[in-house]
TrEMBL record:
The lineage of its organism: Eukaryota, Viridiplantae, Streptophyta, Embryophyta, Tracheophyta. InterPro entries: IPNS-like_sf (IPR027443), Oxoglu/Fe-dep_dioxygenase_dom (IPR005123). This is Fe2OG dioxygenase domain-containing protein. Keywords: Iron, Metal-binding, Oxidoreductase. The keyword Transmembrane helix does not apply. Residues 213-330 form the Fe2OG dioxygenase domain. Belongs to the iron/ascorbate-dependent oxidoreductase family. GO terms for molecular function: metal ion binding; oxidoreductase activity. It comes from the Eukaryota.
Amino acid sequence: MSFSSEAPPALRTVTISYAQLQDKNADLSAKIEEGFGPNGLGILSITDVPGYCSARQTLLHLSPRLASLPEEVKKEIEDPHSRYNFGWSHGKEKLESGKPDMLKGSFYANPILDIPTTEESLIYRYPSYCGQNIWPSHALPELEVAFKALGKLILEVGLMVAYHCDRYDETADSSSYPYLEFFDVSKEMKMHEDKSLEPILLRSRCHKGRLLYYFPMQQSNCSQDGDSMSSWCGWHTDHGSLTGLTCGMFLRNTVEMPCSDGAAGLYIKTRTGQIVKVVYGEDEIAYQIGETTEIMSRGHLCATPHCVRAPRGDEAFGLERSTFALFMQPDWDEKLNFPDVVHIHKELIPAGGSLTFGEYTEKLLDKYYHLKM
Ligand SMILES: O=C(O)CCC(=O)C(=O)O
Ligand SMILES: [Fe+2]
């Protein structure tokens, strides 16, 4: 990691090349440790992924077009039953202050499955995952193809990251149990496999993509929230297992351009509480750890707190930002056991400490969105 001359400090992510990642025998534990380990930033990025740059460009240019569709067209692709977790969502999520988030618009879809299930009871129980994708087929037909192409690519690479995280986790586990060879190792390994990240993500029907459009800051907001790190997107940790993120694209009137304010963009809180801006290339896919991985790894891999800062100054007027996140997460049926050592959303966990991932998500949505429709 190296410091740039920008203040506040900007740190470069740890990078792994696609070629290294593809090698199942490569020992990437040092890089995984550096990125995701106890002293890491909680983010790392993958370089040289074939086909990635054009898939990113194509999709990110569509978010301002989607956001500028007439209100009645956007309303047609809203889904209140899933609490806006499919289709268009603007002003539905509550901010820390309790006010609706008007600063960004999102479009959510499962890039792998258009119809995850047809079972009515499941759709009723887990609407945010078991509902169906809603594409703007007439107003913006290109969106479906571009969204699925980028989402599938980020998942494919993310599964490779997960494979190497599992190998890292195994190494770390055996070093913390130096007498493992005296135990029944086959039993230990079996228990381990149940919580391995790659197979959990591989069998999931819950992956969710989010195309984000950050509206240009109004000048009044600029001065009001100007000093805040989290002026575009509040501090949070992602709920899923692993999030794939594109580097944000800045535009003005739908034309791509560099951001005039070097301090704008993604910020992360490090394990030691330091706040840093993180930078990675437009041609890299970044991955960060979500809460579910912290829970399933019993705190071994920690979730990454992050936020987004809006650009400031006169030149920032009219600047909009487009980006894409893929939330890779367990299936709705996957059982989560909440270890005592992890202190995430304790108030939502029943005595006994176990919920399905789908149940856990609905409880969280009760907290951050309006109650069920
Ligand atoms: O806009 C970004 O770069 C991050 C978005 C994000 O954190 C999220 O959608 O959870
Ligand atoms: Fe996030």
